[in-house]
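Data availability (excerpt). The following record was deposited with the supplementary files.
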Amino acid sequence: MGDSGGPDRGGGRGGGRAARRGGAGGLGGVFVHPQGLCESPNVGTGTRVWAFAHVLPGARIGADCNICDHTFVENDVVVGDRVTVKCGVQLWDGVRLEDDVFVGPNATFANDPFPRSKRRPAAFLVTTVKEGASIGANATILPGITIGRGAMVGAGAVVVASVPPYAVVAGNPARIVRYCDAGPVEAPDQHVAHAQKAAPGKSRVRGVFVERLASAEDLRGKLVAGEIASFLPFRVKRFFLVHGVPGREVRGQHAHHRCHQFLVCARGSCRVIADDGEARQEFLLDDPALGVYLPPRTWGVQYDYSPDAALLVFASHAYDPRDYVRDYDEFRKLVAAGRRPGKRAR
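Predicted structure:
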């Protein structure tokens, strides 16, 4: 990730050169280095502004933040609590950093997709980095996108589109390479892991399980069959087939209020993320005899499709746009409110 822009410094550097600021704007408990300039009165207690950093009057910065050397914070910027902004970062108008965000050294935010000298747009695009996300050194973030909760942007990545929650992206343009905290059950301390081949049985995600279907092979070919009523806790009312997906594209990124789903990669392979708001797990579907069951109120993501992939999805309900939860923060609120309906599967 490139956390190489110097250590977070929790206090003054010897010799009495640094001082706590309790003057302008009543900024008691805010540390500003003698060579730092903080013009904003809206800075939270415990925040540290280091040498040659400049914070403009309109910026709002939360508590316990670390604004490192040679940073610049423009007026229409909002920074949450416990945020670290490493050396050489500029936060331009329209940037929003939520709580516990990390921004690595020399990461760059843009706020105008068509910049011209002396021509300011009526309003700058808003770029939001959600709670707990991290941005690596020298990454470039184009304007108007959202970096999802807990996501991780690799060093040097060029991010041209919004990043889903907990996704790990890298490259130019940035592409999803894996998901945080979605590794196999047998390696719980491995916080970032590549997909493992789906294994039949329960998962660590509430209600989600993998089913191995009956299969046979002889000289005439291969066959996969399943008595749906014998293992699925729902009646199938609809199916759809996802195919021809460009390998780098991401699908899903939603939950359902009522709809149950069972996913089988009938041809090729893809990765499936299941997330219940507390735990998440990644499954590699590369065998048409393996399927993943997703109960209602489970956030699902499918990505890394092979060129020949065909994902077959069986669903318990007819299509209803009102059944979709497309915002991850809204999904987490539903989970926190204890609204998960139905019995626990398997």
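Summary of structural features: The chain has two helices and 37 strands.
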